[in-house]
Amino acid sequence: MWRGGLGESMDFATSTHRRRWLYTKSRLEEERRRLQQVVVEGLRRQRAAADPGEPEAGSATKRPREPPPVSPMGELLMLKYYQQIIQEKCREMRMPAKVMATAIQYHKRFFLRHTSMEYDPGRVMITAIFMATKVEERYTRAADIAAAFDVSEDLVVKQEVALLEGLNFDLVVHSPYRALHGIIQELKDARVAAAAGLPPPTASASAPSPASPGSAAANLPSLDEPLLTAPLQLVDDASRAAYGALDALLLSDAPLLYGPAQLAAAALRSGFKTKGVRIPSFLARLAARAAAQRATREAEADGDGSPPDDDDGAATDAAAAAAAQADPAAALTAVLDELDSLGSEGARRVEVAEVKEANAAAREWRNLLKDAASAAGGGGPGKGAGGAGDDAARAAKREAKKAARAAAKAKEAELLGMPQRQ
Asked: What is the pLDDT of residues 130-177, one digit of tens each?
């Protein structure tokens, strides 16, 4: 399936968001399976290092039996449960939608580098909100976030280094809420222009001119008749419903599969559908302009000798991309249909009872990994007289961690443009 960008900004086209954090469905499933296997194999190695002569688990007199990993569905439900809490707490604390969206994306991305068997998703959730307030310039004190969750201030900041490293320091998230706001404004401007008998307004200064390879964008479809005649109140109601649809999409895998403008278009279509209004012509406008922008980017890439980019970071085959370029509206419709399905999944609320079993299994694994690491690192019970050598090793490990934290903080300050405290 072609996953062409829908009029994304040039910033997004070259962003780490697009290049590193968008997946195909198959690759996403494969990555999650791989992560669990890495954790299981890591525990076995740690246990073997702690006592190479000890037989495998299975006897009551030997080390504890290795429990089964958290089920893939259990993991996804548990992560979604905590992402629901991010939405609720951000609204409760009156944070902008961009903070909430960024915090959810951080949580999703972190758990594509680690699993709940290694890190507590509840603790990562709290730190993700704190980090998002700094990145999105809506700084909220750790003490205030701690109070909202009734936890210690230390717990808010304790996972910062791990979160930064898990995100590969890719802190910029392109918000689908900003994209939705822009599309809604474009729709309203088009209604005004059509009512006044004027040509449709240009969406952005970067849109191709009629002389460019995207000249087809000059012949945009007429606005849908129901949009022209709909009262402004209905448009406003549909727009509010679109924001609700976008909230649901964020709780699915959609942000890991599609770009922000595609999420916004799917949410807009869903919002108007709830009000009984279909908007295929307006969506065709968006698709036509996106196709023209893609053609322009590819022409520029051919001109400077660089390889053309693949939209939204997904690997695309030439035939599918060519077909999409020939009929961008049909390609967009197929993508929006997929997003409708994901939105339905996201809209289903996960209750705490559904994640108790997975939460308990993940906690058991975290405890096992902690115990295995402690035993493999020396100095554990029954290891004999390690003496000064063990003490020195532990001290060196502490210093290394301290240096890593300082480096991570410095990198964060550099990325955020904040002065460092001396």
From this structure: 999 999 999 999 999 999 999 999 999 999 999 999 999 999 999 999
List, for residues 63-86, the tens digit of each pLDDT value.
667 888 899 999 999 999 999 999
CA–CA separation, 382 and 379 (whole Å)? 8
Question: What sign results for the dihedral spanned by CA atoms 108, 114, 120, 124?
Answer: negative
As a whole number of angstroms, the distance between CA 270 and CA 268 comes to 5
CB proximity list for 273: less than 8 A, separation 6 or greater: none
Of 346, 341, 350, 95, the C-alpha closest to 244 is 346
By residue count, the chain amounts to 422
Question: SS3 for 231?
Answer: coil
For residues 249 and 343, the answer to whether their CB atoms sit within 8 Å is yes
DSSP at 338: H
Largest CA distance in the chain: 89
What class does CATH assign to 10-173+351-391? mainly alpha
Q: Which amino acid is at 167?
A: L
Query: What sign does the dihedral 50-55-56-62 (CA atoms) show?
Result: negative
Rounded to whole angstroms, the Cα distance separating 41 from 34 reads 11
- For residue 337, the SS3 value is helix
Q: Which two tokens stand for residue 389?
A: 């050598």
Residue 41 per-residue DSSP state: H
Question: pTM for this structure?
Answer: 0.79
- DSSP-assigned states of every residue in 126-168: HHHHHHHHHHTT----HHHHHHHHT--HHHHHHTHHHHHHHTT
Q: Where are the domains of the chain?
A: 10-173+351-391, 176-347
